[in-house]
Design brief:
- InterPro entries: MetalloPept_cat_dom_sf (IPR024079), MtfA_fam (IPR010384), MtfA_N (IPR042252).
- This protein is of the alpha/beta class.
- It has two domains: 23-169, Glucose-regulated metallo-peptidase M90, N-terminal domain (Cyclin A, domain 1, Orthogonal Bundle); 190-275, Collagenase (Catalytic Domain), CATH 3.40.390.10.
- The chain is built from twelve helices and six strands.
- The chain has helices at residues 3-21, 23-36, 41-50, 53-56, 59-75, 88-99, 157-165, 173-183, 200-220, 235-248, 250-256, 258-268, and strands at 78-80, 115-119, 123-130, 136-143, 145-148, 152-156.
- A four-stranded mixed β-sheet has the order 1-2-6-5.
- α3 crosses α6 and α8 crosses α10.
- The protein is globular.
- The termini are far apart.
Length: 275
């Protein structure tokens, strides 16, 4: 091979390798540009009308949330289902609640998430389940939201609006499903999302396991509890329900279960008690 051709081929190979290997750098640069763009005035109006908790955030977190919203909406398609036409109001309302989980944390914006599907109201899914004696059944479930490890979040718009409207009722379908997305970054949801250090999992398992067992005991006898009894279904649902409670009923959670509150505070890197 001619030396000049060899050099040209080698150079092309190096450039290709650099281009492929620099994707994280190019993504970071692209996101930097998105965050620097002015936040649309119409989006600010939507936040004021549809997302009451936005006004409670400190100024630095408001700014951080707006920048996260810009990146989220630039990268995550939101698709209407069952005849629903997705509007800017829907997009911003969903993004604001999802990005609440990113405040204060180093995040890659739910890296496994490819799209958000939105139905007008509660939607029906059919599942094949096996009962206690091994028989398979086709079961219909009516849901307000669902998170799939394959890269989709499904939401009811009616429930999304209701969750945003009352930021202190402990029920927020967007927070719930996007907590599942955090849990699913490592694969199937287990109730233990990715933590900074291996040693953190020991405390996480102890604190979350104790609180989960308490909720299961309360649910078994129908006793009232701060956390929704749905969290007693399994550890993954417990983490999602606990996340809703952490963001929406922080004072009660800190008072009733301080160790659970502190564990979630360390994971989410924010303190809702200061809002």
């Amino acid at each position: 091979m001619d030396f000049a051709v060899f050099v040209a081929v080698a150079l092309c190979g190096l450039l290709l390798a650099f281009w492929l290997g620099s994707e994280p750098l190019r993504r970071a640069w692209r996101r930097h540009g998105i965050r620097r763009a002015p936040f649309p005035a119409a989006w600010r109006d939507i936040l004021r009308r549809r997302v009451p908790y936005f006004q409670r955030l400190p100024a630095d977190l408001q700014l951080q949330l707006k920048r996260h919203i810009q990146v989220f909406l630039a990268e995550k398609p939101i698709i209407g289902c069952d005849g629903l036409v997705v509007t800017e109001e829907m997009r911003v309302t969903i993004a604001a609640q999802a990005c609440l989980l990113l405040l204060g944390r180093r995040s890659d914006y739910f890296p496994n998430l490819r799209q958000i599907l939105v139905y007008p109201g509660a939607f029906v899914v059919r599942r094949h389940v096996t009962d206690d004696i091994g028989l398979q059944q086709d079961r219909r479930e009516v849901l307000a939201g669902e998170s799939w490890s394959q890269g989709q979040v499904i939401l009811s718009w009616d429930d999304t609006l209701a969750g945003a409207a009352d930021p202190a009722d402990g029920r927020n379908v967007v927070i719930h499903e996007f907590a599942h997305q955090l849990d699913q970054e490592k694969g199937e949801a287990t109730g233990a999302p990715l933590l900074p250090r291996r040693a953190d999992y020991t405390r996480w398992a102890r604190v979350m396991g104790t609180a989960f067992a308490l909720l299961q005991a309360q649910a078994a006898v129908g006793a009232p509890s701060l956390l929704d009894h749905y969290g007693a279904t399994n550890p993954a649902e417990f983490f999602a329900v606990a996340s809703e409670t952490f963001f929406e009923r922080a004072p009660e959670l800190a008072r009733e279960q301080p160790e659970l509150f502190d564990t979630l505070r360390q994971y989410y890197c924010v303190n809702p008690l200061s809002w």
